[in-house]
Amino acid sequence: MAGRDELTSLRSPRVKAARRLAKRAFRRRERRFLAEGPQAVREALEIPGGLAELFTTAEAESRHPELVTAAEQAGVPVLRVSGEVMAELAQTVTPQGLLAVCEFIDVPLSTALESRPRLVTVLAHVRDPGNAGTVLRTADAAGSESVIFTDASVDPYNGKCVRASAGSLFHLPVVVGPRFETLIADLKQAGLTVLAADGAGKRTLDEAIDDGLLAEPTAWVFGNEAWGLPDEILRHVDDVVRVPIYGRAESLNLATAAAVCLYASARAQRTS
Amino acid sequence: MAGRDELTSLRSPRVKAARRLAKRAFRRRERRFLAEGPQAVREALEIPGGLAELFTTAEAESRHPELVTAAEQAGVPVLRVSGEVMAELAQTVTPQGLLAVCEFIDVPLSTALESRPRLVTVLAHVRDPGNAGTVLRTADAAGSESVIFTDASVDPYNGKCVRASAGSLFHLPVVVGPRFETLIADLKQAGLTVLAADGAGKRTLDEAIDDGLLAEPTAWVFGNEAWGLPDEILRHVDDVVRVPIYGRAESLNLATAAAVCLYASARAQRTS
């Protein structure tokens, strides 16, 4: 470990290949993405074949020798780089000195649905990667068994989304790219009641709870923060539900609305 | 309106005075803060004496003539500035051309408590202004009747907090700066059960609901995202409650945890 060569040039082919993964087109081609920090490395190591390459700095190696050893034992190439190169790769202000190149981990929709999940989260037309990552983290916490990003949503492998998910991207089956038109039918076919969360809903979340609706296996659909869900989606779901606003706020942000809806389902499914 | 002079220099005394309000020390001295965009101007105009000065661009004046007229009719100085000066003042990437200089609107703790509120939100040791603003917006939506920032928390008049609150800073009584040591006693004195939200809590939120605890008038205390609430606080509250984690996420972020707790109280207080 101590004798490892250090890559100090941004023009090194391995560094250039990793840097390109900041762009969606290259991620798609290579089916790999970047995840920074010791937690991400730990998560990726738990998935067989999940960690493709590990970039480290000398300092991070001495702080996390167990992770470097585990990567080497798993046959993962470990590349030591200078602090300057790491700063370029990590896309964060204070890089943590460990950067994982990970294999894509999304699964087909059929795989996510075959275990007959009781709580599923759908992100439709969500464009802000930070919001998407926070919803992913919240969905994981609330016991959602899968998170589905429709084709019009942000890429879950976007660096900001990976960071905001705080590891949850690795925790539960993520589905990428289904078209909404066919997705709703597939969700219903899997026995799920499809509920859209939207300020335009006639039924409040409390009414949905009181009516026993949330005790059913449910797929929650969350839309774009600025303009909600388009009519074509609202028409095809089983119901449109709004989180009640008791004060004078005009709306809730996407991640907080999702938290309230998903935790309401978690409670309803466990107490009914 | 058309004949108004345009200030084009960052060295103009009025512009310099407004720019200084980006710093907390100057805000405290002047007891004024900055809020950007048409919504903020509308909110500030609704509070008698709330709008101290209005900076506009020619373009924004033609887009929002009603706001400029309303400000002038209220005797508020309207200052037209160039796009370049507005960009400096607004601290945002795409400034909206309207910037309100507002008078501080926080109230003493005794004022916030004298109406015997049933739901109060306390931010203790919260340092990230974006998180604080999102909690303020969520508290407003959930019907919290007051939001209290302790002396160790971020300044609610920080530009990022004002923006993230999406107008809610103007909607409900905000209290700034009480020390936690005396605050808890004052909240209890006002008939409030003081609950801390913390991952270390023995009682889950569901247990608190089932036990009828949330039907009581409640002050929720939320702490710093990274290290939760200090022991000195946890010892003095009536109970420490944790939001259950059903999946593999390690924790929830501050704003989503607050959303789940506050909406649980809103529902419990309305259905019991």
From TrEMBL, chains A, B:
<protein>
    <submittedName>
        <fullName>RNA methyltransferase</fullName>
    </submittedName>
</protein>
<dbReference type="GO" id="GO:0005737">
    <property type="term" value="C:cytoplasm"/>
</dbReference>
<keyword id="KW-0808">Transferase</keyword>
<keyword id="KW-0489">Methyltransferase</keyword>
<dbReference type="InterPro" id="IPR001537">
    <property type="entry name" value="SpoU_MeTrfase"/>
</dbReference>
<dbReference type="InterPro" id="IPR029028">
    <property type="entry name" value="Alpha/beta_knot_MTases"/>
</dbReference>
<dbReference type="GO" id="GO:0003723">
    <property type="term" value="F:RNA binding"/>
</dbReference>
<dbReference type="InterPro" id="IPR053888">
    <property type="entry name" value="MRM3-like_sub_bind"/>
</dbReference>
<comment type="similarity">
    <text>Belongs to the class IV-like SAM-binding methyltransferase superfamily. RNA methyltransferase TrmH family.</text>
</comment>
<dbReference type="GO" id="GO:0008173">
    <property type="term" value="F:RNA methyltransferase activity"/>
</dbReference>
<dbReference type="InterPro" id="IPR051259">
    <property type="entry name" value="rRNA_Methyltransferase"/>
</dbReference>
<dbReference type="InterPro" id="IPR029064">
    <property type="entry name" value="Ribosomal_eL30-like_sf"/>
</dbReference>
<feature type="domain" description="RNA 2-O ribose methyltransferase substrate binding">
    <location>
        <begin position="34"/>
        <end position="108"/>
    </location>
</feature>
<dbReference type="Pfam" id="PF00588">
    <property type="entry name" value="SpoU_methylase"/>
</dbReference>
<dbReference type="Pfam" id="PF22435">
    <property type="entry name" value="MRM3-like_sub_bind"/>
</dbReference>
<dbReference type="InterPro" id="IPR013123">
    <property type="entry name" value="SpoU_subst-bd"/>
</dbReference>
<dbReference type="GO" id="GO:0006396">
    <property type="term" value="P:RNA processing"/>
</dbReference>
<dbReference type="GO" id="GO:0032259">
    <property type="term" value="P:methylation"/>
</dbReference>
<dbReference type="InterPro" id="IPR029026">
    <property type="entry name" value="tRNA_m1G_MTases_N"/>
</dbReference>
